[in-house]
Amino acid sequence: MSEATNGTTTVAGEVVEKIAVAAARSVPGVADLGGDVARFFNSVLDKVGLDEVGDASRGVSAKVTGNDVTVTVVLVLEAGRVVAEVTAEVQAKVKEALTGYGLNVVAVNVKVDDISGV
Questions:
Q1: Is residue 11 within a helix (H) or strand (E), and if so which, with residue range?
Q2: What is the distance between the terminal CA atoms of the chain, rounded to a whole angstrom?
Q3: Do residues 89 and 51 touch, judged by C-beta distance below 8 A?
Q4: Which of 48, 62, 68, 81 is most buried by a 10 A CB count?
Q5: What average pLDDT does the segment 15-20 reach?
Q6: Per-residue b/e over 76-92, b at no fewer than 16 CB within 10 Å?
Q7: Radius of gyration of the CA atoms of the chain, in A
Q8: How far apart are CA 84 and CA 29, in angstroms?
């Protein structure tokens, strides 16, 4: 005989952020993630040998309510890229990745913070 186990499953915001980071970084035209301040502190961590510390969720924040997630991605665009094309692809890839984990994506907001090489 098998008994059903009752209970809940929750997904931490940090997990959602890690999934979203990987998806966003896979999009051609995304040079980096994070705003100016986050990138500055990450470069300092890199220089002192702590280069993995800030990378896991840098540039992404997530709000998780039950199974619903809203994600904000802050990115640096490669010079010469069309903003709307890259941001639409980031939104699609992040949504696809999170949906693949069984999460309901309410919104993926993208903020272009800088352009590399300019």
A1: none
A2: 66
A3: no
A4: 62
A5: 93
A6: bbbeebeeeebbebbbe
A7: 16
A8: 11
